[in-house]
């Protein structure tokens, strides 16, 4: 537990150093693509010193000066499967982005999906020695949260205070400087498989880069795709990637739940490839060019040429109707959305005041997806594109770049995490632990 706490603290300091130098790279390690953006900051005065315990701020003083993407290799379900292939792909993306920006970058902030995230809601409270809440009191109340047994080989990726209560007043963002007697905190903790994180750390080190931060894709894509009202009132963000689909729930501008399903757009491609007996690359091309989920009478007549490369001219000249293609795609998309529905139900999403659902990620671009999602997930569904970030090339403004853009915002304004405070070494007595989301019913 402590080793990760220390390494996260070290990463925070590294991020500060990188921002003072003025440039940092953003790396989205996905199953279908690896995206690298290079950010330039306008100087050290924008480092957050005294913003308090708070949610994200808006567009910071940074601009994107380099951007590159490359086809991902060696990554499956959002996790590294073949180390040297992933290393090569990361090097390719970073070098191309550096060339465009005309700078050399040493520090990267990375995000990844997969690693089986699990959410916990922790609570801690203590009596104040002095009536005014100090920074030390915040550290002590965070230390008073009882951390559950996360299981063998699991590590903490995010640990964020999402709500403070002082005496009878709850819903405080930052209690420091306020007067009261008893301070309580609710914290959201996200744990992930340690091996997956270690593999990513090792891979980035092998690329001669220093890691200055790590985040969950489900979390950062929501920062980019949810508008402020949705983050405040409660919304779920569904980030449909190639090999994994991230689910995160926000409330009062904080993430209160996250999950990742080992299914995504690649599964649809693979179904097309098997169903039509064509190579994966061709299946991907047909999916993006002709794919859809609703068949009309027109689609029976719309024929799609399928060229194989067997060398047998008769076999290679085939045609299928668009209706057949839709018939292959739709069951898999429905299956992915049913899994998302199950994850939202498990999280208790239906108890939140707002039921807004936002779909983003490259997989969300299949025509007709919002219609099917409305049927399976509920009435309030919209497609989300990431916020506009200064200097971002037009090619990187689509839904597939939600997590990369969110990671830029995260890099500029990380939310306070446990390791931003000096947690006292002598831990306080253990307190209660409740599964994430359940405490929301009591507290909000």
CATH architecture of the domain at 118-193 and 421-443: 2-Layer Sandwich
- Per DSSP E runs of 2 or more residues, the count of β-strands stands at 19
CATH fold name of the domain at 118-193 and 421-443: Dna Ligase, domain 1
Q: Termini separation (Å)?
A: 30 Å
**CATH hierarchy, class of the domain at 118-193 and 421-443:** Alpha Beta
Strand content: 25-35%
Rg over CA atoms, rounded to whole Å, is 23 Å
- Read across the widest sheet, the strand sequence of neighbours is 3-2-1-6-11
Biggest sheet descriptor: 5 strands, mixed
Shape: globular
**Helix coverage percent of residues?**
25-40%
Return residue spans where pLDDT drops below 50 for at least 5 consecutive residues. Answer: 44-59, 425-439
- Helix count from the secondary structure assignment: 14
Structural class: alpha+beta
The pLDDT mean sits at 83
Fold topology:
Layout: H1 2-21, E1 23-29, E2 33-41, E3 62-71, E4 75-76, E5 79-80, H2 83-101, E6 107-112, E7 118-127, H3 135-143, E8 154-166, E9 169-172, E10 182-193, H4 194-206, E11 210-216, H5 217-225, H6 228-233, E12 235-240, E13 245-251, E14 254-261, H7 265-276, H8 280-290, H9 297-301, E15 303-306, H10 313-316, E16 318-321, H11 322-347, E17 356-360, H12 369-377, E18 381-383, H13 402-412, E19 433-435, H14 438-443
């Amino acid at each position: 537990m402590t080793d990760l706490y220390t390494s996260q603290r070290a990463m925070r300091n590294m991020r500060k150093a990188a921002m003072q130098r003025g440039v940092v790279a953003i790396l989205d390690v996905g199953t279908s693509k690896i995206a690298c953006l290079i950010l330039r900051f306008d100087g050290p005065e924008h480092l957050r010193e005294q913003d308090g315990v708070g949610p994200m701020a808006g567009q910071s003083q940074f601009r994107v000066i380099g951007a590159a993407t490359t086809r991902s290799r060696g990554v499956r379900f959002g996790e590294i499967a073949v180390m040297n292939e992933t290393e090569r792909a990361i090097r390719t993306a970073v070098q191309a982005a550096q060339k465009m920006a005309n700078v050399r970058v040493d520090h990267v902030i990375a995000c990844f999906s997969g690693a089986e995230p699990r959410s916990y809601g922790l609570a801690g409270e203590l009596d104040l020695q002095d009536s005014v809440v100090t920074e030390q009191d915040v550290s002590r109340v965070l230390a008073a949260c009882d951390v559950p047994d996360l299981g063998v080989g699991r590590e903490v990726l995010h640990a964020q205070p999402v709500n403070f209560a002082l005496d009878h007043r709850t819903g405080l963002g930052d209690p420091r400087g306020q007067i009261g007697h008893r301070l309580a905190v609710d914290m959201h903790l996200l744990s992930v498989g340690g091996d997956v994180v270690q593999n990513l750390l090792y891979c980035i080190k092998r690329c001669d880069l220093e890691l200055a931060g790590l985040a969950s894709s489900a979390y950062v894509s929501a920062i980019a795709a949810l508008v402020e009202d949705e983050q405040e009132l409660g919304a779920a963000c569904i980030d449909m990637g190639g090999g994994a689909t991230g689910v995160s729930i926000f409330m009062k501008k904080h993430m209160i739940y996250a999950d990742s399903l080992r299914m995504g757009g690649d599964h649809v491609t693979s179904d097309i490839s098997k169903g039509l007996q064509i190579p994966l690359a061709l299946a991907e091309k047909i999916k993006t060019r002709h794919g859809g989920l609703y068949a009309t009478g027109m689609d029976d007549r719309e024929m799609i040429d399928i060229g194989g490369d067997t060398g047998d001219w008769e076999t290679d000249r085939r045609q299928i109707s668009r209706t057949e293609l839709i018939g292959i795609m739709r069951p898999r998309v429905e299956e992915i959305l049913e899994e998302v529905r199950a994850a939202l139900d498990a999280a208790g999403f239906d108890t939140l005041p707002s039921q807004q659902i936002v779909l983003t990620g490259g997989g969300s671009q299949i025509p007709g997806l919002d219609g099917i999602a409305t049927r399976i997930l509920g009435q309030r569904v919209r497609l989300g594109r990431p916020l506009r970030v200064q200097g971002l090339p037009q090619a990187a403004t689509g839904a597939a770049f939600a997590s990369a853009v969110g990671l830029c915002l995260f890099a500029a304004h990380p939310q306070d995490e446990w390791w931003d405070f000096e947690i006292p070494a002598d831990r306080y007595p253990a307190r209660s632990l409740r599964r994430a989301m359940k405490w929301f019913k009591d507290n909000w």
